[in-house]
Every structure is written in structure tokens, then in C-alpha cells.
């Protein structure tokens, strides 16, 4: 499972960077979205994938028995998803406003503030 | 139970939430704005005094013991940074009362300012690397919204670059956090340091160190990753620019100091060389960029970049004296850069322009106002003897 995930994450990162290098601001936001998903999958995978072993503590004991899944990366990914979602919502509003003001879906037309 | 460690984070969040309740009432929002900043200053002083007496204070959130739960840690560096944040927050609040337009205040200027302060204080106080990422994002989202408040074309263009590059940095940071957890199995910074010392020095550790360096380097605006800063910092209202100049890049610098003195304190010679060169080139490019500009705020924006170089040089030299000098440069720069931005606002108010070429008659038309700037530029002589302070700007 891990090698497959590694390839998938690599493709996601590459696609995201490619999208961010395009001139269109819509594709820029798609790139940001893919990038955060890639990072979340990466956290999920590097922390170790254990199938069918929920981290439950049997009754009368104080620690789970045997090799169980690590619950912490899931909590971390959940937090990261929420953050990525809020940032994405902001980015979508931003590109809409930018499109209204600049009247172009093109980063090359947005060079007024550069030197 | 030491509440003063959590209060600098909780109070701004609370005052932000309360002023959201009074969305339509401008006077109440202004009152809560100043009141919240005053309260933040009081708890920061409380924390600072406690830390000066005891050395450091920790608070385990939710009662979970240290490597498992999230801890807030206040040592002298964190406490002094939080205190500076509170002081600058209060000054910005007062300055905003006079300079912020009705249009900005109507769309949540004060709640956003409090959210920004909460994010900055959280980043300074947390002892957990993933929690640091969360506070970075809280701070960033608030700063994104503050940056585009007003909705002018320049703000939109600046904000797109600012948002993209800062999000890229955040994702690199998040990736590094995930890989750190995969490598050492903990997220507590002190615990990561212990486990990395115990583990053998593998290539993965160096990859992680470089990822943290790049992520925080973008946020701190170090060469060659600083281009978002001069493209965006001069676009929002002056009080917002000054707040950003004082706090945001400094959080990046603080994180570099924290991570490279606590977690990656093993000797990595070529990394230190990279950081030395980056710091030196940052100083030079920042100043050269500033020299080419004629817009007051753009000059100051490039100057922030140059000053970041001085701070990083302290870290890159990596001796106790150099690091102390770097920290001093951070604190000193927070005060001076804020003041310079505020002076640019006063200049704009008096003369109606940010263009230096049109400012020639300022000493004639506004006698007396050149003196604050004059003193700022020479700096207080007492500071010039310290190793961290720079002779120029």
C-alpha cells in the first residue's frame, strides 16, 4: 500500500506545482488545493498505515493490545483539512475579486505592484 | 496551573469574538479594540515578570502530560516576543483609531487585528511543532483578510502573490511536520530534539532541516525567497503595513531561531554555510532594492528584507553572543520599523503623497515633523553599541 501511496502523492505534488506555474489565477488556486491534499496524504502515509486495527483499549486494561493504528496523524490531518478548507475559501473569494478588479484571468496582467 | 501562559493567546481571541458580536457598532468595536489590546499588554507583562523570575513556565493544555498533549512554553525569548507583540498591538490600535477609514472598520478591521495578535502570540508560545503550523495559519488568514480590506486593485495584485507564496511555505512546513512525525514519532519540539540526538545522523534529518529552513525562510522573507514582501506590503493601509512589518516576518525569524537552536542543534556545516550566505545576500539585496525605489513604503518594505539578513546572520554564526545579537536585532527592528511605517503614514497625511520626489518641501510646509524621522534614522545611540543592531537604515 505504501509504495502506491508514495507514487500517488508524488503525482499530486507534481501536478500541483505545474498548475501553480501557469498564468491563470484559477489554475493557481487549483494548484494550491492539490498541494494541501498532497501534504495531508503524505502525513497520513509517513506515520504508518495499519489496516483493520482501531486503537481501542479493551475493557479493564489501560493500553491497547498488539499493533494498532496510530490515531494522532488522523487528528493532525483532520485539523490540516479544516485549515486548508478555510484558506481555500479565502483564495476563491480573492481570485473572484481580483478578476473583477483586473478584468483578466492572467497573472502577467497583475504586475503593477512589482518593480 | 499557570493561566498567564495561555492568556496572551486567549484574550485576543476573546476580544476578537466579542467585537464580532458588535459588528454594526463602530464605537463599541473601537472601545473593545483598545481595551483588548490593553488587557493583552497586562497579561504579557504578567507572563514576562513570571518568566524573568523562574526562567521558563510551561502549561500542559487539557492536563495531558508533555510528549502526548500540546504544551505551551514560555521562556525568556517567547515572553519578550509576546511582550513586544502586545506593545506594538496597543500602539497600532491607537494609531488605527485616527487613521483607519470607516470602510475598513465596517468590514471587521478590529476583530481581524485581534485574530492576528492571537496567532502571533500562539506561535511564540507553543511548544508543539504542529501547533506552530496551526498558529501560523491563524495569523496568515487574518493577515490575508487585513491585506485586501478596501479592495483596491494594487491590494488584490499584492495579495495574490502574498497568499500564494505564504501558502506554499505553509505546505512545505506541513510536509516537513508530517515527515518529522514519520521519522521520530513525536510532535513536541523538545521531545523531537531529544529523539534526534539519540537517533543516528541520517540523511532524512538533513532533508527535514532544509525543509524547515526553506519554509521559515519564505515567511521571514530571506533571500532568495523574499519577493512577495515588497510586492505586497505597501498596498494596505499604513496601520496594517506597520503591524505586518513588526510582527509577521519576525514570527518566521523566531521560528528559525527556535527550530535551529532547539531541534536541529547538531552540527551541519554546509547548512550553516548556506544560511550565512543567504543572510549576507539578504542584507545586500534588500538595501539595493530599497535604493532603487522612490515610494516611501516600498523603500521601507525592501528595508525589512535587508534587516532580516542581520537577524539571520546572528543565527547563522551560531555562537551564544551572535544569537543574542540576532534576538536583539529582532526586538529593535520591531520598534524601529513600526515607527518608520507610522511616519510614512503621517507624511502621507501631511503631504498627500508617498512619492519621495514630490516630498521636497516637507520641512517647509510641516515644520517639526521631520524630527521623529530624523531620530529614527539615526537610531538611539545606546543601541548602536550592541552586536545585533545594524549601523545603517
Automatic annotation (TrEMBL), chain A:
It is a multi-pass membrane protein. The chain crosses the membrane at residues 6-21, 28-52, 72-95. It is found in: Cell membrane. Pfam families: Oxidored_q2. It comes from the Bacteria. One of its GO terms (cellular component) is plasma membrane. InterPro entries: CPA3_antiporter_subunitC, NUOK/Mnh_C1-like. Keywords: Cell membrane, Membrane, Transmembrane, Transmembrane helix. Belongs to the CPA3 antiporters (TC 2.A.63) subunit C family. This is Na+/H+ antiporter subunit C.
Amino acid at each position: 500500500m505504501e509504495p502506491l501511496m508514495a507514487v500517488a502523492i508524488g503525482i499530486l505534488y507534481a501536478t500541483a506545482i505545474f498548475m501553480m506555474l501557469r498564468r491563470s489565477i484559477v489554475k493557481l488556486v487549483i494548484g494550491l488545493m492539490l498541494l494541501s491534499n498532497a501534504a495531508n496524504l503524505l502525513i497520513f502515509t509517513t506515520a504508518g498505515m495499519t489496516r483493520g486495527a482501531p486503537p481501542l483499549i479493551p475493557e479493564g486494561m489501560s493500553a491497547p493490545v498488539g499493533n494498532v493504528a496510530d490515531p494522532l496523524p488522523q487528528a493532525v490531518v483532520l485539523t490540516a483539512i479544516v485549515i486548508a478548507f478555510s484558506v481555500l475559501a479565502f483564495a476563491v473569494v480573492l481570485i473572484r475579486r481580483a478578476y473583477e478588479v483586473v478584468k483578466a484571468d492572467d497573472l502577467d496582467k497583475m504586475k503593477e505592484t512589482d518593480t | 496551573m499557570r493561566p498567564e501562559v495561555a492568556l496572551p493567546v486567549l484574550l485576543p481571541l476573546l476580544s476578537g469574538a466579542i467585537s464580532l458580536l458588535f459588528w454594526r457598532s463602530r464605537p463599541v468595536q473601537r472601545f473593545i479594540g483598545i481595551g483588548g489590546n490593553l488587557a493583552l499588554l497586562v497579561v504579557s507583562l504578567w507572563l514576562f515578570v513570571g518568566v524573568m523570575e523562574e526562567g521558563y513556565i510551561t502549561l500542559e493544555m487539557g492536563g495531558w502530560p508533555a510528549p502526548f498533549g500540546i504544551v505551551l512554553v514560555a521562556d525568556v525569548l517567547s515572553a519578550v516576543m509576546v511582550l513586544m507583540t502586545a506593545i506594538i498591538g496597543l500602539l497600532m490600535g491607537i494609531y488605527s483609531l485616527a487613521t483607519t477609514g470607516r470602510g475598513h472598520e465596517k468590514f471587521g478591521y478590529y476583530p481581524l487585528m485581534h485574530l492576528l495578535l492571537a496567532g502571533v502570540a500562539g506561535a511564540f508560545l507553543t511548544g508543539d511543532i504542529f501547533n506552530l503550523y496551526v498558529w501560523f495559519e491563524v495569523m496568515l488568514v487574518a493577515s490575508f483578510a487585513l491585506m485586501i480590506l478596501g479592495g483596491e486593485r494594487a491590494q488584490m495584485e499584492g495579495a495574490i502573490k502574498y497568499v500564494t507564496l505564504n501558502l506554499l511555505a505553509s505546505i512545505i512546513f506541513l510536509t516537513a511536520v508530517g515527515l518529522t512525525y514519520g521519522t521520530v514519532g513525536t510532535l513536541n519540539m523538545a521531545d523531537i530534539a531529544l529523539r534526534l540526538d539519540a537517533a543516528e545522523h541520517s540523511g532524512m534529518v538533513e532533508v527535514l532541516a532544509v525543509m524547515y529552513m526553506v519554509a521559515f525562510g519564505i515567511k521571514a522573507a530571506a533571500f532568495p525567497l523574499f519577493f512577495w514582501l515588497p510586492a505586497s506590503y505597501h498596498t494596505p493601509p499604513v496601520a496594517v503595513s506597520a503591524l505586518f512589518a513588526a510582527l509577521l516576518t519576525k514570527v518566521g525569524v523566531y521560528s528559525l531561531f527556535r527550530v535551529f537552536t532547539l531541534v536541529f542543534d547538531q552540527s551541519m556545516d554546509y547548512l550553516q554555510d548556506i544560511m550565512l550566505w543567504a543572510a549576507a545576500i539578504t542584507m545586500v539585496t534588500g538595501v539595493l532594492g530599497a535604493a532603487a525605489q522612490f515610494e516611501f513604503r516600498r523603500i521601507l518594505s525592501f528595508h525589512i528584507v535587508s534587516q532580516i539578513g542581520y537577524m539571520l546572520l546572528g543565527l547563522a554564526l551560531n555562537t551564544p553572543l551572535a544569537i543574542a545579537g540576532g534576538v536583539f536585532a529582532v526586538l529593535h527592528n520591531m520598534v524601529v520599523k513600526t515607527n518608520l511605517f507610522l511616519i510614512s503614514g503621517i507624511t502621507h497625511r501631511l503631504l498627500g503623497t508617498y512619492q519621495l520626489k514630490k516630498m521636497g518641501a516637507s520641512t517647509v510646509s510641516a515644520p517639526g515633523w521631520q524630527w521623529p524621522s530624523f531620530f529614527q534614522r539615526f537610531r538611539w545611540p545606546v543601541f548602536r553599541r550592541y552586536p545585533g543592531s545594524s549601523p545603517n537604515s
